[in-house]
Amino acid sequence: MTVIVDYGMGNLLSVAKAFDHLGHAVQVSGDPEVVGNADKVVLPGVGAFGACMENLRAAGLVEPLKQQVASGRPFLGICLGLQVLFDRSAERGEHTGLGIVPGEVIRFTETSELRIPHMGWNEIVLKQPAPHLAGIPEGTRMYFVHSYFPVPENGADVAVVTRHGQEFCSAVWRDNVFASQFHPEKSGQLGLRLLDNFARL
């Protein structure tokens, strides 16, 4: 069973509906035991990094999430669910993340020509042949809503990049972990293709 992690934040309903539309059964749960024993895990998220980590810790979900990743079972992070995989974030102070992907999360540098948050449709450039991206062509436009972005320490972890004033990492792939800054559940048919690819792993 694929479990969508409920930690009191995030776009749980839209992600669950997307999988349901594709014909894949999912369970929304904040129970650490359910999350830890899931066949696959989806960690969605909308909001602030610090609040997300506080909620994960309060719900007892930090260790089950780390154990899930360590087990080699498929893991998908979306938006904030990507960012908290990193060591730390500079969003509203310094916050410690899950430490699954080495690196940090930083804010776009705002200028008179660069709108922050980065919101709307933007092209992705594929850097790695992650199975989640099968059938998704170069230059596909995905939907973004964010002011911060990840900076992996290891360039080999970068699966997708996008340009918004500067080129930034918009998805990572490390072993069984794939996570995107964009929202596949809001990105039309090709976004749904990514979710379908994940569900079929």
Quickly give the CATH architecture: 3-Layer(aba) Sandwich
CATH overall fold name: Rossmann fold
Give the tally of structural domains: 1
What would the principal axes of the Cα set say about the shape?
Answer: globular
Number of helices: 6
Spatially, the strands of the biggest sheet line up as 2-1-3-4-14-13-12-9
Biggest sheet statistics: 8 strands, mixed
Separation of the first and last Cα atoms = 12 Å
Which CATH first-tier class would you pick? Alpha Beta
Number of strands: 14
Structural category: alpha/beta
Could you spell the SSE succession in H and E letters? Answer: EHEHEHHEHEEEEEEEEEEH
Strand proportion, as a percent range, falls in: 25-35%
- Tell me the helix content: 10-25%
Radius of gyration (CA) equals 15 Å
Outline the low-pLDDT stretches: none
Return the average pLDDT rounded to an integer. Answer: 95
* CATH homologous superfamily (4th level) name: Class I glutamine amidotransferase (GATase) domain
Would you write up a description of this structure?
With 201 residues, this protein is an alpha/beta fold. It has one domain: Class I glutamine amidotransferase (GATase) domain (Rossmann fold). Helix content is 25%, strand content 33%. The chain has 6 helices and 14 strands. It has helices at 12-21, 32-36, 49-58, 62-70, 80-83, 188-199; strands at 2-5, 26-29, 40-43, 75-78, 86-89, 95-96, 101-107, 118-123, 125-126, 141-146, 148-152, 158-163, 167-174, 177-180. An 8-stranded mixed beta sheet has the order 2-1-3-4-14-13-12-9, with helices on both faces. It has a 4-stranded mixed beta sheet with strand order 6-5-7-11, with helices on one face. The longest helix has 12 residues, at 188-199. The mean pLDDT is 95.
